[in-house]
Amino acid sequence: MKLYHYVHCPFCIRVRMVLSYLKLSYESIVLPYDDEKTPLELAGKKMLPIMEMEGKVLNESLEIISLIDKENKLKTKESIAKYDEIEPLLNEMGSNIHSLAMPYFIWTPEFDQNSRQYFQKKKEVKRGPFKELVHNREKFETALMHTLEENKDLFQKDFNHHALELNDILIAAHMWGMYIVPEFQYPEPIHRYLQKVKAHCDFEYHGDYWRL
User: Fold this and answer.
1) How far is 180 from 100, CA to CA, in rounded Å?
2) Where in the chain do CATH 3.40.30.10 domains reside?
3) How far apart are CA 139 and CA 143, in angstroms?
């Protein structure tokens, strides 16, 4: 199996977490964000993740997860069947998280000068200048914390008595980008929940750069 992905992408992170949880071996290929040729040749559009497996090329994260979790160990079938129930929350969180984290993503090892400029130019079309996003951090952070407070029951899960499910991974993958934002701290119960998901998945955000 080959996984083409961006390190910062929540849809890629969810696939990485599932692969790691299921202890499946795969070749990890981090694409530069300004590489348009590779995804277009593989899947016909610039969208990651892309998985090559069993003679197929897939680039829809839930389709990939459905195929690799054949034994439904994460209650994948049930989660995907009810995805429309959790998608609004992911979108609401993601909107503020991306506005907060994107200006900092570009200074991680994932980006060089060319891909940094490409990413920033593309994303500023939708979100506005990154300098303004940083300046308006308090606004986005307040909105994010409000969303988290409204959904605080999701983060009370007792993993000693309840197994990890795909929904936990979907939530964690969307939230992980905030760990890149300087000085940001999740409330302790939420941080604890995310770290439990990380431990279950043996997940390392920048694992591609520290692999022995």
Assistant:
1) 9
2) 2-73
3) 6
CB 98 within 8 A of CB 177: yes
Token couple for 58: 């897939």
The fold adopted by the segment(s) 77-201 is Glutathione S-transferase Yfyf (Class Pi); Chain A, domain 2 (1.20.1050)
* Adjacent-strand bridge partners of 56: 53
Q: Which of 22-26, 178-182, 194-198, 206-210 has the lowest mean pLDDT?
A: 206-210
Give the count of beta carbons closer than 10 Å to the beta carbon of residue 189: 12
pLDDT of residue 130: 98
Claim: this prediction has a pTM higher than 0.70: yes
Q: Which two tokens stand for residue 123?
A: 């994303």
The interaxial angle of helices 166-175 and 188-201, nearest 10 deg, is: 120
As assigned by CATH, the class of the 2-73 domain is: alpha beta
Q: Is 53 helix (H, G, I), strand (E, B) or coil?
A: strand
